[in-house]
Amino acid sequence: MQDAITAVINSADVQGKYLDSSALDRLKKYFQTGELRVRAAATIAANAATIIKEAVAKSLLYSDITRPGGNMYTTRRYAACIRDLDYYLRYATYAMLAGDASILDERVLNGLKETYNSLGVPIGATIQSIQSMKDVTAGLVGPDAGKEMAVYFDYICSGLS
Ligand SMILES: CCC1=C(C)/C(=C/C2=NC(=C\c3[nH]c(/C=C4\NC(=O)[C@H](C)[C@H]4CC)c(C)c3CCC(=O)O)/C(CCC(=O)O)=C2C)NC1=O
C-alpha cells in the first residue's frame, strides 16, 4: 500500500532526484487537507451503517434484485451484499486518508470482477449502489471531503466496470 507521501518520494527516488516543485505542491496539498480527511473518516466511521442503509434504500430496495430470482434475494445474499458495501465504504475511507488508491487495487479490486461474474453478482447494480453511497457520504461530510471520497468510490466503480 502507498500513500500520498510515499508515492511522491518513491517517484523522486526512482529518478534519483530531490522533490521538484510539483511534487512539493502535491505534498503541501495533502498536508493542508489532513485535518479534513481525519474529520471525514471519523464522521464516516460513526455513521457507516446509516450510509449503507440509505444507499441501499436509494438504489437497490424495491427493485427486481431483492425479489425471487434476484441476486440479493435470500437473507444470505442480502447480507453478503451489505457486507460488500461495507468493504467498499471502509476501504474508500482508508484510501481517502492515505490520499492514494493503491490499497483498493491490492485489497479490494484484485480478482473482484471475476468473482462477481462467476457468482452472477450484477456489476451495474453494484456500481449504482456505490454511486449512492458516494452521494449519501457527501451529504454527511460536506462537499470538500465528499469530493475526496468521490475519487475513491469512482476508482472502485471503474475497477469493476
Ligand atoms: C475486502 C475485499 C472483499 C470483497 C470486495 C469481497 C466481495 C465478495 N462478494 C461476494 C459475494 C456476494 N456479493 C454480493 C453482492 C451484491 N449482490 C447484488 O445483487 C448487489 C447489487 C450486490 C451488493 C451491492 C452477493 C449477493 C454475494 C453472494 C453471491 C452468492 O453467493 O450467490 C464474494 C464471494 C464469497 C462470499 O460470498 O463471501 C466476494 C469475495 N470479498 C472480500 O474479501
UniProtKB/TrEMBL annotation:
Sites where the protein binds (2R,3E)-phycocyanobilin: 71, 76, 81
GO biological process: photosynthesis
Bilayer disposition of the protein: Peripheral membrane protein
Keywords: Antenna complex, Bile pigment, Chromophore, Electron transport, Membrane, Methylation, Photosynthesis, Phycobilisome, Thylakoid, Transport
Assigned GO CC terms: phycobilisome; plasma membrane-derived thylakoid membrane
SUPFAM superfamilies, sorted: Globin-like (SSF46458)
Subcellular location: Cellular thylakoid membrane; Membrane
Modified-residue entries (N4-methylasparagine), positions: 71
Pfam families documented for this protein: Phycobilisome (PF00502)
Family as reported in the entry's similarity comment: Belongs to the phycobiliprotein family.
NCBIfam families: apcB (TIGR01337)
Matching PANTHER family: ALLOPHYCOCYANIN BETA CHAIN, PHYCOBILISOME 32.1 KDA LINKER POLYPEPTIDE, PHYCOCYANIN-ASSOCIATED, ROD 2-RELATED
Protein name, UniProt field: Allophycocyanin subunit beta
